[in-house]
Amino acid sequence: MHAPILALALAAAPAAPGTPTDQQKKLAVELVQLIQTKEAYRDSLVMMSQQISAALAAQARAQGGSLPADFADRVLRATMEVAPYDEMVTWSADVYAQRFTVPELKDMIAFYRTPTGRKVARLLPEIMGEVGKKVGQLLPERMPEALRHQGLDTQGGRPRQSLSPDAGS
Questions:
Q1: Are 29 and 60 in contact (CB under 8 A)?
Q2: CA pair distance 126, 115, nearest whole angstrom
Q3: What is the CA radius of gyration of the chain?
Q4: How far apart are alpha carbons 130 and 123 in whole angstroms?
Q5: Can you tell me whether residue 6 is helix, strand or coil?
Q6: What is the pLDDT of residues 7-60, one digit of tens each?
Q7: Which end of the chain is more exposed for a tag (fewer CB within 10 A), N or C?
Q8: CA distance 45 to 152
């Protein structure tokens, strides 16, 4: 095969699984930017930093410590420093590009450009936050009984039966 023909054949061949094409990467970036705008991402970081601040403040109070007046603002700035929007877009786009084909990415982009898609993107963080809050409330309430149901009585920190892999052999 001549070199130009081989180069064209290789360029046209689909990438191996887990190796996204440049087109997949480009479309995935576009998709992520539609799903999570800078403003929505900032809002999610604000919520996350508020939870971190509350937990750290409670820990400080329990230990008799105090926090500066601008503690919550500092935690927000630190959170934004740790996970900047552009990096989140890159990380997310890598994941989408590895899991979705070019036609699938185009379908999702088309959806997120619709009024319904924009509404989903706008409300998704709020929806996930509400669901997460509910799960967070129910887990401590329901987990002891579920563990007992599975034969793991955690009274005193000890299971009713061994957790070792050879248990019951």
A1: no
A2: 18
A3: 24
A4: 11
A5: helix
A6: 333 344 444 456 899 999 999 999 999 999 898 888 888 888 888 888 888 888
A7: C
A8: 37
